[in-house]
Amino acid sequence: MEQTLEIDSLHRELAWQREISDARAAELRTLQEKADEKTDRPSQTCHWWTIAGFAAGLLCASPARKLINRIKTFLKR
Questions:
Q1: Measured between alpha carbons, how far is 77 from 75 in angstroms, rounded to an integer?
Q2: What tens digit of pLDDT does each residue of 40-58 get?
Q3: DSSP label at 1?
Q4: Cα(16)–Cα(63) distance, integer angstroms
Q5: CA–CA separation, 75 and 69 (whole Å)
Q6: Residue 8 and residue 37: Cα distance in Å, rounded?
Q7: How many Cα atoms are found within 13 Å in the side-chain-facing hemisphere of 62?
Q8: CA dist., res. 71 & res. 77, Å (int)
Q9: What is this structure's pTM?
Q10: 48-73: average pLDDT
Q11: Is the C-alpha dihedral spanning 12, 13, 14, 20 positive or negative?
């Protein structure tokens, strides 16, 4: 009799642990789907930052090139 009570309690415990495990797995799946949704969409401002970086590079490179040319011509004299 005691063994059947023990087995029944173990079955209930196992069923309860399975329910918890299934609930956690379902929650993990929904979180993964939300994360996939966020990574699938590209940033709306990504191309603007690329253009701004390219323009900043051109604006910085032109004065630097002029300065280097002036220094080289000064050193050649």
A1: 6
A2: 566 677 788 888 888 888 8
A3: -
A4: 72
A5: 10
A6: 44
A7: 5
A8: 10
A9: 0.43
A10: 85
A11: positive
Q: Distance between CA 30 and CA 24 in Å, rounded?
A: 10
Q: Can you spell out the DSSP letters for 9-52?
A: HHHHHHHHHHHHHHHHHHHHHHHHHHHHHHHHSPPTTHHHHHHH
Rounded CA-CA distance 70/24 in Å is: 68
Whole-number Å distance between alpha carbons of 23 and 1: 33
Q: Which structure tokens are listed for 21? A: 């495990």
Q: What tokens were used for 31?
A: 């979180």
* Rounded Cα–Cα distance for residues 11 and 32 (Å): 31
